[in-house]
Amino acid sequence: DTAVSQTPKYLVTQMGNDKSIKCEQNLGHDTMYWYKQDSKKFLKIMFSYNNKELIINETVPNRFSPKSPDKAHLNLHINSLELGDSAVYFCASSQPSGLSYEQYFGPGTRLTVT
Amino acid sequence: KQEVTQIPAALSVPEGENLVLNCSFTDSAIYNLQWFRQDPGKGLTSLLLIQSSQREQTSGRLNASLDKSSGRSTLYIAASQPGDSATYLCAVIGWNYGQNFVFGPGTRLSVLP
Q1: Cβ contact (<8 Å) for A43 and B103?
Q2: Cβ-nearest to B93 among A43, A101, A105
Q3: pLDDT exceeding 70 applies to what percent of chain A?
């Protein structure tokens, strides 16, 4: 059973299009995240949701909009795609256990904008 | 603001060597530190999690230590194998910056047969 899943795995699209990436976790976690990993492999947080509420929105263009229909899902919608949006996008989830937080990652979605 | 660095950026060793990867963080107010492995084109796999009250954790040939006061963690890999080749990332989470993990840039490890 996959703990954190993402679809699609690969996404190739043209500049100016709108696309969505879906994420689901079956771990019962309250907090979900979206990360972007650029060509230099640096992993940077984009959004953090706790129990369907946005708690962190890092310096991300407003073309990116997360949507959390329920605690187990956090989708990422991107409007007017640009070349610089090409990257691997990872979804993750975590849950506190005492004073400890362990994070679980999805397999990633490789977005290529042409 | 929490900043995480990892040294070295890349490492190439012959099979069988023991090796140490380093992770440093600037804000010692952390809940825990987590080490991950990322294979090319793949997601992140959790290796070890060290709580702030712990000094080390072990899993098989891996041993991770934590010195919170100095803002350092090391990942020790014993008897390295070609299958250990991957990028290793450390991440910390603390109460001064919400429930968010801050990642280091990673160490790219190549173990040569």
Answers
A1: yes
A2: A101
A3: 97
Query: Cβ–Cβ of A102/B101 closer than 8 Å?
Result: no
Average pLDDT of span A106-111? 95
Q: Give the mean pLDDT per block of 10 residues along chain B (113 residues).
A: 93 96 94 94 92 94 96 97 97 80 94 95
For B47, other C-beta atoms within 10 Å of its C-beta total 20
**Residue closest to A74 by CA, chosen among A6, A18, A1:** A6
- Best interface-test mutation with B: which of A42, A43, A105 has the largest number of B CBs within 10 A? A43
Under 8 Å CB pairs connecting chains A and B tally to 71
Task: Say what the pLDDT of residue A109 is.
Answer: 97
What is the mean predicted confidence (pLDDT) over A90-114? 90
Residues of A with Cβ-Cβ distance to B98 under 8 angstroms = 48, 55-56
Please report which confidence band the pLDDT of residue A1 belongs to, taking 50, 70 and 90 as the band edges: low
Residues of A in contact with B42 (CB under 8 A): 107-108
Instruction: State the pLDDT at residue A49.
Output: 87
Cβ–Cβ below 8 Å for B46 and A48: no
Phi/psi of residue A84, nearest 5 degrees: -70, -10
CA gap B108, B21 in Å, rounded: 10
Q: Over pLDDT 70: what percentage of chain B?
A: 97
DSSP for A41-84, please give it: --EEEEEEEETTEEEEE-S--TTEEEEEEETTEEEEEE-S--GG
In sequence order, which ranges of chain B are alpha helices (DSSP H)? none
